[in-house]
Amino acid sequence: xxxxxxxxxxxxxxxxxxxxxxxxxxxxxxxxxxxxxxxxxxxxxxxxxxxxxxxxxxxxxxxxxxxxxxxxxxxxxxxxxxxxxxxxxxxxxxxxxxxxxxxxxxxxxxxxxxxx
Length: 116
Known about the structure:
The chain is α/β, with parallel strands linked by helices and 116 residues long. Helices cover 44% and strands 23% of the residues. The strands form two sheets. It has a five-stranded parallel sheet, with helices on both faces. Strands 4-5 form a two-stranded antiparallel sheet. The protein starts with a strand and ends with a helix.
């Protein structure tokens, strides 16, 4: 079973996404921000991180940089409702898949990203 770390400061959204992913056969861990995600990764293994963009203690691009440098084998996806062109362009520059939290084909995109 593939494990996904959901990183989002909004507990309601995080819970909804965790339920959706769990009901589709994924093991889901949760973190409420940048620092808690970093702490989690020090002692746990995941195959994919799905991170919000804007959080009180940092942003998804900062988390991506940390993960890319320290855990290069972990997949990464931004899940955000901030789909401005500037955000999408920056994600594209980094090579980070970006999806709206309300995407109807989120499970398909995650499955494809994990090569399942």
